Amino acid sequence: METITDRPPTTDRLRLVFDRNGVALLRLCTLLTKRREDAEDLVQESFVRLAPKLHGLDDGAVWPYLRQIALNLWKNRLRRIALEIRARTHHSADVPPATGAFEEHDRIWSAVLDLPPRQRACVVLRYYEDLTERETAAVLGCSMGTVKSQSSKALARLGEVLTNGD
Predict the structure, then answer these.
(1) Residues 29-84: tens digit of each pLDDT
(2) Quick check: helix, strand or coil at residue 166?
(3) Amino acid 148: pLDDT
(4) Are 54 and 13 in contact (CB under 8 A)?
(5) Is the separation of the CB atoms in 66 and 20 below 8 Å?
(6) What digits encode the pLDDT tens for the residues 147-157?
(7) Considering only CA atoms, which of 124, 22, 112 is closest in space to residue 70?
(8) What is the distance between the alpha carbons of residues 51 and 11, in angstroms, rounded to a whole number?
(9) In this structure, what are the phi and psi dihedrals at residue 9, rounded to the nearest 5 degrees?
(10) What values do phi and psi take at 165, rounded to 5?
(11) Number of H helices, E strands in the chain
């Protein structure tokens, strides 16, 4: 078992950690964000946040810790985006409704935004981010059963709202 004093200096260790985990983290973040540019930003921010904590982590704990940092950053971005969309939707309520496909798109997203937070998260992760139930459960920190039930409730509610115009 190596001790903290046996480890290379922090900058060298950070470089080693990046060499070992950078590609895997980029792949994970690309899957989460669906955009390489956004994924690269998440990877960079994850390593920035890992650097000051690195001295206290054993080698076996580095990847799980790094992955959790990336997932938390991504969830925070989703929250921020949802708030921005909600604010834009609220401010654009006075604008006359659009016609055609844009109107339907806005109607769907408005219905998604009106879902309770956990249901909304499941819908966004499963159908917008195209994650599996297992991946969604891991990101949200809940069971697959919760993802299934929340997704089912959300889809039922969306069906009601979109067919009845509630």
Answers:
(1) 888 877 899 999 999 999 999 999 999 999 999 999 999 999 899 888 888 888 77
(2) coil
(3) 94
(4) yes
(5) no
(6) 999 999 998 99
(7) 22
(8) 8
(9) -55, 155
(10) 75, 25
(11) 7, 0
Q: What is the distance between the terminal CA atoms of the chain, rounded to a whole angstrom?
A: 62
Specify the pTM.
0.53
CA-to-CA distance for 81 and 90, rounded, in angstroms?
14
Return the exposure string of 123-140: e unless at least 16 CB atoms fall within 10 Å of the residue's CB, then b: bbbbeebebebebbbebb
Token pair in block for residue 142 = 């809940």
What is the rounded distance in angstroms from the CA atom of residue 42 to the CA atom of residue 155?
30
Residue listed under structure tokens 């917008």? 128
- Which amino acid, residue 120? R
153-159, long-range: CB < 8 A, 24+ apart: 153/119, 154/115, 154/119, 154/120, 154/122, 154/123, 155/123, 157/111, 157/115, 157/119, 158/108, 158/111, 158/112, 158/115, 158/123
Which tokens hold the place of 141? 């920190």
